[in-house]
Design brief:
Number of domains: 2
Structural class: mainly alpha
Oligomer: single chain
Helix content: over 70%
Distance between the termini: 62 Å
Radius of gyration: 18 Å
Number of helices: 5
């Protein structure tokens, strides 16, 4: 029965990633939460990926990118370059 749940979750995630109905990060966290709630992964396994330094680096880059976009600093740099 667990394999059926897992197959449905994977196919649903694939469709959501391709269609981008939700942002990709929301879809990924939704899948992780669903796997955790259904007991297909343990809490330790669900959080193990966040201990990788590469994941934290990418997360920090997303935060910095959002901050630069909201502050319009990039537009200022592009205009002053001309």
């Amino acid at each position: 029965m667990e394999i059926i749940f897992l197959g449905v979750i994977i196919l649903t995630a694939l469709v959501l990633f391709i269609s981008e109905l939700f942002p990709i990060d929301v879809t990924a966290l939704l899948v992780l939460g669903l796997l955790l709630v259904l007991g297909l992964v343990s809490p330790a396994e669900s959080l193990a990926g966040f201990s990788n330094p590469a994941v934290m680096t990418i997360a920090c880059l997303f935060v910095m990118s959002f901050a630069l976009q909201k502050s319009h600093i990039l537009e200022y740099v592009i205009i002053s370059d001309r």
